[in-house]
Every structure is written in structure tokens, then in C-alpha cells.
């Protein structure tokens, strides 16, 4: 614990939830939002004049682990079509809409979603961005100047991808976000995976969303992130655990099609999963809603998952899976930013999944540039 500083502006106290778990305590932040002191609850000495004291549940900033933000240009109720008819490339409703919508309109829609997430305590978004190099550029332009980190996972506009487009895409994007190995011609998955590894880029794929897929060939691609796994078997999940691959799940969008990610099975295997809000055309990118729905739907189906597991899926696991674990550590010297939810501190992770909303947030300045 460090001594009080003249620059201390805030004392956040109550329950602290970060990569170390849950503990009663307090943090002192300087004027820039940097953590300068952490201690046990009830042990804080007197602070400097003007220190603002805020009580509640203290967390790192969150990450939305899987989105398709561009299709948020479609705001109506989804028609009663199959998932493939709605979103599968190249002829699904979503892809027809993207082709018909001017780029500035898509950029405005994406920016609106990003802005809403930033106001709700989100500092990172993992977005699957279709439409090749142009699609990644639309996303980058939409995110310009906003206080969050966007992992842009692009997708080649043609299959198989041309050498020129693949090279350019991996220069512009943080990696590739592929619809499914089943959508690729033989050998193309290996080629794309090799290009990602050579360029030190992320590789993420949808897998076993609507039907079970053999995960052996997928895992041999050494992906960084698998998305959905609704139809994965127990043996498949054992293989994912052994391969130490990150997983992203999207309970609300899956439920539209009577599919449910295996939350309890992932928890039992200690597979660190991320929560994502998936297609913006299906609902708002609100992680508080996602946590609440995940908790209630799992419990109602007799496969309950602990609130702490869901909270970690938003505020801790993504930083670890995406390679920036210090952002989940609320200790002096950490670059992590903090948020506070003005909620009761008894059983804090249940309070978060059951009662949190953007209106409950207190957000100090974030120290330094966003990750």
C-alpha cells in the first residue's frame, strides 16, 4: 500500500472484482484515473482535501468478446428465417443488406454501437468484420477517436482469398474472423491459419453453432478463439480445454434459434470463455443484458452457471485471452482502468448479473491510452 498523494481524487470502496477474485477493499485513484493505492476495507487513512469517495462494486473495464456490428443497419424484428437464411454468406439477408447499404451508413451504425458500449463500461470489442479490406477500414473509421480498443477480425471478400487481398487484409486487421471451416474449400483453412501465424495475427472461427463439427481439423489450425460451440460434445470440450483455446459465447442471439452455449460444461472444465453480443441486427450490444440472460437461461434449463463465471467472462477473461492480462489487474502500477457499479456489495457478482445497468455506473478517467 502506498501513501496518500496530493493528486488523489477518488476513493472507490466496497467490493473489488478483478483477476485475483473478489475481495472487500478500496482503491485510491489519482487525477488521471491511475491506481495509486489499494487496501483492505476499513483500513484507509484520511485522504487529501477534495477526495471523492464512491461506494459500490469496483471492476476493470469490460470487453465484448464477439460482435458483428455492421449489420446493425437492420433494426427491425428478424424475419422467421433460419440462421443460414439470415446471416450465412454469401446470400443471407445480412450479406444482401451489407452489399446494398452505403459505407457511410454502415460506419454511422457501427459508431453508434461502439459509443453505446463505451458509455457502458466497455473498453474493448472483438468484431468480425466482413467485406474484406474495405470492411475493416469502415470499422476503423467508425471507431476513430472513441475510448475503446477494437480488435478488427477481417474476412476475405472472395473464397479462396487472393494472395493480394489476404496480404493487405492482415496488414489492416488484427486477424481473421471466419464464418466456419465448412464454408472453405479444402486446404484454405490451413492457408489462412498459416498466414495469421506468420503475420502474428489472431485467428477466430465460428464452430459447432448449428450442427456439431469435428473439432480435430479446426483445432489443428491453432485458432486463438472459437465462437459458439452450441452443438459441441463433451469430448469436443475436453479437446478445447487441452488445446487451451479461448471460447466466445453469445447466449441471447443463440436463443433466437433455440440454441444454447454449453456454459455449465465450459465452467466445469475451467475453460475461460468470453461473452459477446453477436449480431447487432438481433439486439443491442449490451453486456449487462447478456450476463443477465446467460444466468437466467442457464438456471432455467437446469444447467446453472455461477454469477462469478459470467462476470469474469466480461471483465477478466477477455484481457487474458487477448494477451493483455494487466488490464484485468486492479493494483497500483497497473495500466488498468476502473469502473464502479453503485450496487449493494453483498454477493457482488450476483448483483452485477441481476441488477447492473449503464445507469448504475461511475466511470473515473482512464489512465493513459486505451489498449
Automatic annotation (TrEMBL):
Keyword Hydrolase: yes
InterPro entries: Amidohydro-rel, Metal_Hydrolase, MTA/SAH_deaminase
Keywords of the record: Hydrolase
Gene3D superfamilies associated with the record: Metal-dependent hydrolases
UniProt domain Amidohydrolase-related: residue ranges: 57-347
Pfam families for this protein: Amidohydro_1
Molecular-function GO terms, alphabetical: hydrolase activity
Protein name: Amidohydrolase family protein
Native organism: mine drainage metagenome
Amino acid at each position: 500500500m502506498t501513501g496518500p498523494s496530493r493528486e488523489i481524487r477518488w476513493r472507490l470502496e466496497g467490493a473489488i472484482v478483478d483477476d485475483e477474485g473478489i475481495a472487500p477493499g478500496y482503491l485510491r485513484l489519482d487525477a488521471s484515473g491511475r491506481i495509486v493505492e489499494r487496501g483492505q476495507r476499513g483500513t484507509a487513512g484520511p485522504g487529501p482535501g477534495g477526495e471523492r469517495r464512491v461506494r459500490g462494486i469496483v471492476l476493470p473495464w469490460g470487453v465484448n468478446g464477439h460482435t458483428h456490428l455492421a449489420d446493425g443497419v437492420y433494426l427491425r424484428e428478424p424475419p422467421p428465417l433460419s440462421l443460414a437464411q439470415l446471416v450465412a454468406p454469401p446470400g443471407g439477408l445480412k450479406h444482401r443488406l451489407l452489399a446494398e447499404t452505403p459505407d457511410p451508413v454502415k460506419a454511422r451504425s457501427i459508431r453508434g454501437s461502439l459509443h453505446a458500449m463505451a458509455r457502458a463500461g466497455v473498453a474493448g470489442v472483438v468484431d468480425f468484420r466482413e467485406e474484406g479490406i474495405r470492411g475493416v477500414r469502415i470499422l476503423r473509421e467508425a471507431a476513430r477517436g472513441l475510448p475503446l480498443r477494437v480488435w478488427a477480425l477481417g474476412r476475405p471478400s472472395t473464397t479462396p482469398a487472393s494472395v493480394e487481398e489476404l496480404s493487405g487484409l492482415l496488414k489492416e486487421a488484427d486477424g481473421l474472423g471466419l464464418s466456419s471451416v465448412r464454408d472453405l474449400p479444402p486446404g484454405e483453412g490451413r492457408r489462412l491459419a498459416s498466414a495469421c501465424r506468420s503475420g502474428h495475427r489472431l485467428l477466430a472461427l465460428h464452430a459447432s453453432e448449428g450442427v456439431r463439427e469435428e473439432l480435430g481439423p479446426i483445432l489443428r489450425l491453432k485458432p486463438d478463439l472459437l465462437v459458439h460451440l452450441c452443438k459441441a460434445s463433451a469430448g469436443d470440450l475436453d479437446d478445447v480445454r487441452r488445446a487451451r483455446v479461448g471460447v466466445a459465447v453469445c447466449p441471447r442471439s443463440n436463443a433466437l434459434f433455440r440454441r444454447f452455449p454449453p456454459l455449465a460444461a465450459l465452467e466445469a472444465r475451467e475453460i475461460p470463455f468470453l461473452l459477446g453480443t453477436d449480431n447487432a441486427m438481433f439486439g443491442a450490444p449490451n453486456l449487462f443484458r447478456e450476463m443477465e440472460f446467460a444466468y437466467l437461461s442457464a438456471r432455467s434449463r437446469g444447467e446453472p452457471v455461477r454469477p462469478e463465471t459470467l462476470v469474469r467472462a466480461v471483465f477478466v477473461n477477455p484481457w487474458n485471452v487477448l494477451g493483455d492480462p494487466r488490464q484485468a489487474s486492479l493494483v497500483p502500477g497497473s495500466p488498468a482502468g476502473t469502473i464502479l457499479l453503485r450496487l449493494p456489495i453483498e454477493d457482488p457478482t450476483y448483483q452485477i448479473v441481476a441488477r447492473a445497468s449503464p445507469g448504475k455506473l461511475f466511470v473515473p478517467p482512464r489512465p493513459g491510452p486505451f489498449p
